[in-house]
Amino acid sequence: MHSSSAHGLLLDVFNLQERDKIVSFLTAEHGKKRGVAQGARTKFSRFAGQLQPLAKVAITWFEKEGRDLVRISDVELVRPASALQSDLEGILLGSYLAGHIMEFAQENEDSATSYRLLDATIEALLGGCDRGLAARYFEVWVLRLNGIFPTPKECPLCGRAIEDQVVFLESEAALVCPSCSEGHRRIDVGPAELEFLWRSARENLEQMSKRPTAPAALAKIEMLCARVRRNFLQSELKSYRVMKETLASI
Ligand SMILES: [Zn+2]
User: Fold this and answer.
1) How close is the Cα of 143 to the center of ligand 1, in Å?
2) Residues, CB within 5 angstroms of ligand 1 (ion)
Protein backbone atom coordinates (compact mmCIF):
# COMPACT_ATOMS: atom_id res chain seq x y z
CA MET A 1 0.00 0.00 0.00
CA HIS A 2 1.39 3.43 -0.86
CA SER A 3 0.10 6.93 -0.48
CA SER A 4 -0.02 9.78 -2.99
CA SER A 5 -1.01 13.43 -2.78
CA ALA A 6 -1.95 15.79 -5.58
CA HIS A 7 -4.21 18.59 -6.57
CA GLY A 8 -7.42 17.14 -7.92
CA LEU A 9 -10.69 18.22 -9.50
CA LEU A 10 -13.68 16.36 -8.11
CA LEU A 11 -15.79 14.87 -10.90
CA ASP A 12 -18.48 12.90 -9.21
CA VAL A 13 -19.52 12.20 -5.62
CA PHE A 14 -22.13 9.68 -4.61
CA ASN A 15 -23.28 7.95 -1.45
CA LEU A 16 -22.19 4.45 -0.63
CA GLN A 17 -24.37 2.82 2.00
CA GLU A 18 -24.94 4.77 5.21
CA ARG A 19 -21.48 6.00 6.04
CA ASP A 20 -19.27 6.42 3.01
CA LYS A 21 -19.01 8.25 -0.26
CA ILE A 22 -17.45 7.26 -3.55
CA VAL A 23 -15.50 10.09 -5.15
CA SER A 24 -14.13 10.29 -8.70
CA PHE A 25 -11.42 12.86 -9.29
CA LEU A 26 -8.92 13.94 -11.91
CA THR A 27 -5.28 14.67 -11.22
CA ALA A 28 -2.67 15.91 -13.67
CA GLU A 29 -0.10 13.25 -12.76
CA HIS A 30 -2.19 10.14 -12.08
CA GLY A 31 -5.18 10.66 -14.37
CA LYS A 32 -8.65 9.74 -13.27
CA LYS A 33 -9.12 8.04 -9.89
CA ARG A 34 -12.01 6.63 -7.92
CA GLY A 35 -11.90 6.21 -4.20
CA VAL A 36 -13.85 5.70 -1.01
CA ALA A 37 -14.10 8.49 1.53
CA GLN A 38 -14.85 6.45 4.61
CA GLY A 39 -17.27 7.98 7.06
CA ALA A 40 -17.93 10.95 4.75
CA ARG A 41 -21.68 10.70 5.38
CA THR A 42 -21.36 10.77 9.15
CA LYS A 43 -22.07 13.89 11.14
CA PHE A 44 -18.60 14.89 12.28
CA SER A 45 -16.66 13.58 9.31
CA ARG A 46 -13.34 15.22 8.48
CA PHE A 47 -14.61 15.37 4.88
CA ALA A 48 -17.62 17.49 5.82
CA GLY A 49 -18.20 20.19 3.24
CA GLN A 50 -15.10 19.27 1.21
CA LEU A 51 -16.62 16.88 -1.29
CA GLN A 52 -18.36 19.18 -3.77
CA PRO A 53 -18.46 18.26 -7.46
CA LEU A 54 -16.03 20.35 -9.55
CA ALA A 55 -14.23 21.69 -6.48
CA LYS A 56 -10.45 21.82 -6.67
CA VAL A 57 -8.87 20.05 -3.73
CA ALA A 58 -5.59 18.92 -2.29
CA ILE A 59 -6.21 15.21 -1.93
CA THR A 60 -4.30 12.32 -0.35
CA TRP A 61 -5.11 8.68 -0.95
CA PHE A 62 -3.79 5.18 -0.39
CA GLU A 63 -3.79 2.52 -3.03
CA LYS A 64 -3.15 -1.18 -3.16
CA GLU A 65 -1.74 -2.93 -6.19
CA GLY A 66 -4.48 -4.41 -8.35
CA ARG A 67 -7.36 -2.56 -6.68
CA ASP A 68 -9.53 -0.13 -8.65
CA LEU A 69 -10.78 1.80 -5.67
CA VAL A 70 -8.32 3.86 -3.67
CA ARG A 71 -8.87 4.93 -0.06
CA ILE A 72 -9.11 8.68 0.33
CA SER A 73 -7.52 9.82 3.57
CA ASP A 74 -7.54 13.59 3.33
CA VAL A 75 -9.23 16.32 1.27
CA GLU A 76 -8.69 20.04 1.60
CA LEU A 77 -10.69 22.50 -0.42
CA VAL A 78 -8.53 24.72 -2.66
CA ARG A 79 -11.26 26.29 -4.79
CA PRO A 80 -14.96 25.67 -4.13
CA ALA A 81 -17.30 25.45 -7.10
CA SER A 82 -20.43 26.37 -5.17
CA ALA A 83 -21.16 29.32 -7.49
CA LEU A 84 -21.57 26.85 -10.33
CA GLN A 85 -23.73 24.56 -8.23
CA SER A 86 -26.31 27.14 -7.19
CA ASP A 87 -28.70 26.93 -10.14
CA LEU A 88 -30.02 24.07 -12.24
CA GLU A 89 -28.31 25.15 -15.47
CA GLY A 90 -24.97 25.41 -13.69
CA ILE A 91 -25.36 21.99 -12.06
CA LEU A 92 -26.23 20.38 -15.41
CA LEU A 93 -23.33 22.08 -17.16
CA GLY A 94 -20.92 21.04 -14.39
CA SER A 95 -22.05 17.46 -14.65
CA TYR A 96 -21.67 17.61 -18.45
CA LEU A 97 -18.06 18.83 -18.16
CA ALA A 98 -17.27 16.16 -15.57
CA GLY A 99 -19.06 13.55 -17.73
CA HIS A 100 -16.61 14.24 -20.57
CA ILE A 101 -13.63 13.63 -18.33
CA MET A 102 -15.20 10.49 -16.82
CA GLU A 103 -15.57 9.14 -20.34
CA PHE A 104 -12.38 10.33 -22.01
CA ALA A 105 -9.69 10.49 -19.29
CA GLN A 106 -7.68 7.38 -18.48
CA GLU A 107 -6.83 6.00 -15.08
CA ASN A 108 -3.23 6.15 -13.90
CA GLU A 109 -2.07 8.09 -16.93
CA ASP A 110 -0.53 11.51 -17.27
CA SER A 111 -3.55 13.77 -17.83
CA ALA A 112 -1.93 17.17 -17.53
CA THR A 113 -3.64 18.64 -20.60
CA SER A 114 -7.11 17.42 -19.64
CA TYR A 115 -6.53 18.62 -16.10
CA ARG A 116 -5.48 22.07 -17.31
CA LEU A 117 -8.47 22.27 -19.64
CA LEU A 118 -11.02 21.39 -16.96
CA ASP A 119 -9.29 23.57 -14.38
CA ALA A 120 -9.21 26.59 -16.72
CA THR A 121 -12.83 26.06 -17.82
CA ILE A 122 -14.11 25.91 -14.23
CA GLU A 123 -11.98 28.94 -13.32
CA ALA A 124 -13.46 30.91 -16.25
CA LEU A 125 -17.02 29.87 -15.39
CA LEU A 126 -16.56 30.90 -11.77
CA GLY A 127 -15.24 34.22 -13.05
CA GLY A 128 -18.46 34.81 -14.99
CA CYS A 129 -17.48 33.57 -18.48
CA ASP A 130 -20.45 32.97 -20.78
CA ARG A 131 -21.57 29.38 -20.14
CA GLY A 132 -22.35 28.63 -23.78
CA LEU A 133 -18.93 29.78 -24.90
CA ALA A 134 -17.16 27.84 -22.12
CA ALA A 135 -19.10 24.65 -22.91
CA ARG A 136 -18.31 24.83 -26.65
CA TYR A 137 -14.65 25.62 -26.03
CA PHE A 138 -14.40 22.69 -23.62
CA GLU A 139 -16.14 20.22 -25.99
CA VAL A 140 -13.97 21.17 -28.94
CA TRP A 141 -10.83 20.81 -26.86
CA VAL A 142 -11.74 17.44 -25.33
CA LEU A 143 -12.29 16.05 -28.83
CA ARG A 144 -9.13 17.74 -30.10
CA LEU A 145 -7.00 16.35 -27.26
CA ASN A 146 -8.29 12.90 -28.09
CA GLY A 147 -7.32 13.33 -31.73
CA ILE A 148 -10.85 12.99 -33.10
CA PHE A 149 -11.70 16.55 -34.12
CA PRO A 150 -8.50 18.21 -35.31
CA THR A 151 -8.32 21.92 -36.07
CA PRO A 152 -9.20 22.21 -39.78
CA LYS A 153 -5.91 22.94 -41.52
CA GLU A 154 -5.99 20.47 -44.34
CA CYS A 155 -8.60 18.15 -45.78
CA PRO A 156 -8.06 14.68 -44.26
CA LEU A 157 -9.21 13.04 -47.52
CA CYS A 158 -7.21 14.88 -50.20
CA GLY A 159 -4.65 16.82 -48.17
CA ARG A 160 -5.59 20.18 -49.70
CA ALA A 161 -5.06 23.16 -47.39
CA ILE A 162 -8.28 24.52 -45.91
CA GLU A 163 -8.34 28.26 -46.34
CA ASP A 164 -11.84 29.58 -46.08
CA GLN A 165 -14.22 26.77 -46.88
CA VAL A 166 -14.88 23.56 -45.07
CA VAL A 167 -17.87 21.25 -44.74
CA PHE A 168 -18.76 18.50 -42.29
CA LEU A 169 -18.97 15.14 -44.03
CA GLU A 170 -21.50 13.04 -42.16
CA SER A 171 -20.17 9.62 -43.17
CA GLU A 172 -16.68 10.47 -41.88
CA ALA A 173 -17.80 12.71 -38.98
CA ALA A 174 -14.99 14.99 -40.11
CA LEU A 175 -14.36 18.40 -41.62
CA VAL A 176 -13.29 18.11 -45.26
CA CYS A 177 -12.88 20.36 -48.27
CA PRO A 178 -16.05 21.04 -50.32
CA SER A 179 -14.92 19.06 -53.36
CA CYS A 180 -14.37 15.86 -51.32
CA SER A 181 -17.92 16.05 -50.02
CA GLU A 182 -19.72 16.42 -53.35
CA GLY A 183 -22.67 14.08 -53.62
CA HIS A 184 -22.47 13.06 -49.95
CA ARG A 185 -24.51 14.05 -46.92
CA ARG A 186 -22.88 17.08 -45.42
CA ILE A 187 -23.44 19.97 -43.07
CA ASP A 188 -22.37 23.43 -44.14
CA VAL A 189 -19.86 25.13 -41.91
CA GLY A 190 -19.92 28.93 -42.05
CA PRO A 191 -17.04 31.37 -41.63
CA ALA A 192 -18.05 32.13 -38.02
CA GLU A 193 -17.81 28.45 -37.05
CA LEU A 194 -14.52 28.04 -38.87
CA GLU A 195 -13.18 31.10 -37.12
CA PHE A 196 -14.26 29.68 -33.75
CA LEU A 197 -12.40 26.44 -34.45
CA TRP A 198 -9.23 28.27 -35.44
CA ARG A 199 -9.34 30.82 -32.65
CA SER A 200 -10.05 28.19 -29.99
CA ALA A 201 -6.81 26.44 -31.00
CA ARG A 202 -4.70 29.44 -30.02
CA GLU A 203 -6.76 31.60 -27.64
CA ASN A 204 -7.83 30.99 -24.06
CA LEU A 205 -11.37 31.60 -22.80
CA GLU A 206 -10.57 35.10 -21.62
CA GLN A 207 -9.37 36.08 -25.10
CA MET A 208 -12.30 34.31 -26.73
CA SER A 209 -14.70 36.26 -24.49
CA LYS A 210 -13.38 39.60 -25.73
CA ARG A 211 -14.63 38.99 -29.25
CA PRO A 212 -17.73 36.85 -28.74
CA THR A 213 -18.88 34.27 -31.28
CA ALA A 214 -22.48 34.62 -32.50
CA PRO A 215 -24.98 32.31 -30.71
CA ALA A 216 -25.96 30.66 -34.02
CA ALA A 217 -22.33 29.71 -34.67
CA LEU A 218 -21.98 28.33 -31.13
CA ALA A 219 -25.11 26.24 -31.68
CA LYS A 220 -23.62 24.83 -34.89
CA ILE A 221 -20.36 24.01 -33.09
CA GLU A 222 -22.34 22.20 -30.38
CA MET A 223 -24.11 20.14 -33.01
CA LEU A 224 -20.89 19.24 -34.84
CA CYS A 225 -19.15 18.27 -31.59
CA ALA A 226 -22.11 16.08 -30.63
CA ARG A 227 -21.89 14.30 -34.01
CA VAL A 228 -18.13 13.72 -33.69
CA ARG A 229 -18.48 12.55 -30.10
CA ARG A 230 -21.37 10.17 -30.85
CA ASN A 231 -19.51 8.76 -33.82
CA PHE A 232 -16.48 8.08 -31.62
CA LEU A 233 -18.25 6.78 -28.50
CA GLN A 234 -21.05 5.07 -30.45
CA SER A 235 -23.47 6.62 -27.94
CA GLU A 236 -24.16 10.03 -26.46
CA LEU A 237 -22.85 11.11 -23.06
CA LYS A 238 -25.60 10.55 -20.50
CA SER A 239 -24.90 13.95 -18.92
CA TYR A 240 -25.50 15.63 -22.32
CA ARG A 241 -28.84 13.90 -22.80
CA VAL A 242 -29.92 14.76 -19.27
CA MET A 243 -28.86 18.40 -19.72
CA LYS A 244 -30.68 18.83 -23.05
CA GLU A 245 -33.85 17.04 -21.93
CA THR A 246 -34.04 18.88 -18.61
CA LEU A 247 -33.44 22.32 -20.11
CA ALA A 248 -36.01 21.64 -22.86
CA SER A 249 -38.63 20.75 -20.28
CA ILE A 250 -38.45 23.92 -18.18
ZN1 LIG B 1 -10.54 17.20 -49.83
Assistant:
1) 21
2) 155, 157-158, 177, 180
Distance 185 CA to ligand 1 centre (A): 15
pLDDT tens profile 96-150: 999 999 999 988 889 999 999 999 999 999 999 999 999 999 999 999 999 999 9
Per the CB < 8 A criterion, the answer to whether 34 and 72 are in contact is: no
Residue 218's H or E segment, with its range, is helix 215-233
CA of 235 to the centre of ligand 1 (A): 28
Single pTM value for the model = 0.94
212 C-beta neighbours (distance < 10 Å), count: 12
208 Cβ contact partners less than 8 Å away, ≥ 6 residues apart: 133, 137, 199, 200
Domain ranges of the chain: 129-250
Contact 22, 35 (CB under 8 A): yes
Q: How far is the CA of 164 from the centre of ligand 1 (A)?
A: 13
Rounded distance between C-alpha atoms, residue 121 and residue 136, angstroms: 10
Cα separations (Å) of 56 from 9, 111, 137? 5, 15, 20
Quick one: the chain helix, strand, coil %, rounded to 5?
40, 25, 35
**Residue 82 per-residue DSSP state:** G
